Amino acid sequence: MTVTSPTTTTPTTTTTPPTTSTSGTSTTSTSDATLQGLGSLADNFNTFLTLLTTQLQNQDPTAPLDSNQFTQQLVQMTGVEQQLNTNSLLQQLVNNSGSVSSAVSMIGTNVTATSNTANLTNGQAQWTYNLPSAAADLKVEVLDSSGNVVSVQSPSNMSAGNHNFTWNGQNLAGTQLPNGGAYTLQVSAVDSSGNSITATNYVQGTVTGVTQNAGVASIIVNGTSVPLSSVVSVNPANSTSTSGGS
Question: Which end of the chain has the smaller Cβ count within 10 Å, N or C?
Fold first, then answer.
């Protein structure tokens, strides 16, 4: 009896701590995973359904999960998901408000923004293109909204740097096109070794308005809508930016 009693006590003592430790570790891991996975939970509700399925598969057959408890968990999880979605929408609203405020503060200033597109206004459209290195051959084309070439020019100034380009609004036949259309500038350049040079196009002008579409704030420059994220410089209204001419 003396030998049997310690033997019985030892397994009991040894078994209990792992059970407690496992439970604590599981709870901590679940909490950490929950906190870290809140964002993905809002995007993929199936994650929670998988957890419930796993819980059902591993439940104690002698004490199955109560249906009321199961339903309550579903309701609680749905509430969590909706709250996450609400928080996300509120954060998006705050970010959008900040973007619009930043855009509005630019009205009346002179800006430079990356853009291939410019509107034909008062019989002309203007761009600035940048050549990162000197070109040996250069061609500048203006395309309409359907991708048709309406103007082709070969500027003589092919040095590296910024070059102002103004199109007079006339097509290849010399016909003056109506104002208001959106046109795209396409610059093709190669160096003396025949390697292609990638030019960057900009539009410059005074910001006259602000628009917002699908949460994206844009400014109006020379009648053209330009995303706020495309702006590379902002100057006071009475200042002028300088660039190399062509």
Answer: N
Phi, psi at 106, each rounded to 5°: -85, -10
Question: How far apart are alpha carbons 172 and 71 in whole angstroms?
Answer: 71
Instruction: Quote the distance between the C-alpha of residue 78 and its chain's center.
Output: 28
Q: What is the reported pTM?
A: 0.55
Distance separating alpha carbons of residues 151 and 138, to the nearest angstrom = 14
145-168 burial code (b ≥16 CB/10 A, e <16): eeeeebbeeebeebeeebbebebe
Length of the chain: 246
**pLDDT tens digit at each of 246 positions of the chain:** 444 444 444 444 444 444 434 344 443 444 444 444 455 555 556 676 777 777 777 776 666 666 666 667 667 667 666 766 666 666 555 555 546 677 777 888 888 999 999 999 889 999 999 999 999 999 999 999 999 999 999 999 999 999 999 999 999 999 999 998 899 999 999 999 999 999 999 998 888 888 877 667 888 888 888 888 888 888 887 654 444 444
